[in-house]
């Protein structure tokens, strides 16, 4: 087997290319790649607990806490007490984030579509099956 045939190498190379495409698009918002995907997840579903957001974005709790801290500091999100359990905090968009929501989601959709456009609908379903298989084979 050659180096270029290594699954980890090929996936990593592809991830770096996709990440660069997003990074170039989100630079104007001063968001990192990780922050961008967390804010998109919050835009999709506000009011999650940090643990639920970690699960949704496939991040560990420490990573999500750091991302949320930075997003809060930069004015994108706010933590509000849970109405039924005051010990818990839920994540919501700030007015600033709401003003940028349409543009952020459009950017997310357009950038994602650049890559999805490389596949037919059947190929994309097959790719998702392959990725699911890889995720569950360890």
Description:
This protein is mostly helical. It has one domain (3-136): Winged helix-like DNA-binding domain superfamily/Winged helix DNA-binding domain (Arc Repressor Mutant, subunit A, Orthogonal Bundle). It is 66% helix and 7% strand. The protein contains 6 helices and 2 strands. Strands 1-2 form a two-stranded antiparallel ribbon. A hairpin with a 7-residue loop joins strand 1 and strand 2 (89-93). Helix 1 (7-26) crosses helix 5 (95-116), helix 2 (33-44) crosses helix 4 and helix 3 crosses helix 4 (61-73). The model has no long low-confidence stretch (mean pLDDT 94).
Helix content: 55-70%
* Order of helix and strand elements from N to C terminus: HHHHEEHH
Assigned CATH superfamily: Winged helix-like DNA-binding domain superfamily/Winged helix DNA-binding domain
Q: Cα distance, first to last residue?
A: 21 Å
Number of extended strands: 2
User: Which CATH C-level class is it?
Assistant: Mainly Alpha
**What is the radius of gyration?**
17 Å
- The backbone outline, from C-alpha atoms, is globular
Average pLDDT over all residues: 94
- Enumerate the spans where pLDDT stays under 50 for 5 or more consecutive residues: none
Domain module tally: 1
Give the class from helix and strand content and strand pairing: mainly alpha
> Per CATH, what is the topology?
Arc Repressor Mutant, subunit A
Largest sheet composition = 2 strands, antiparallel
């Amino acid at each position: 087997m050659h180096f270029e045939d290594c699954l980890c190498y090929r996936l990593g190379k592809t991830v770096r290319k996709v990440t660069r495409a997003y990074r170039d698009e989100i630079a104007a918002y001063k968001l990192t790649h990780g922050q961008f995907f967390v804010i998109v997840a919050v835009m999709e579903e506000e009011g999650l607990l940090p643990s639920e957001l970690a699960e949704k974005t496939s991040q560990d709790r420490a990573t999500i806490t750091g991302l949320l801290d930075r997003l809060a500091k930069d004015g994108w999100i706010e933590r509000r007490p849970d109405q039924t359990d005051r010990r818990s905090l839920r994540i919501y968009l700030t007015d600033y984030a709401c003003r940028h929501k349409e543009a952020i989601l459009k950017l997310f959709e357009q950038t994602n579509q650049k890559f999805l456009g490389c596949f037919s609908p059947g190929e994309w379903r097959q790719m998702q099956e392959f990725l699911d298989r890889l995720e569950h084979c360890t």
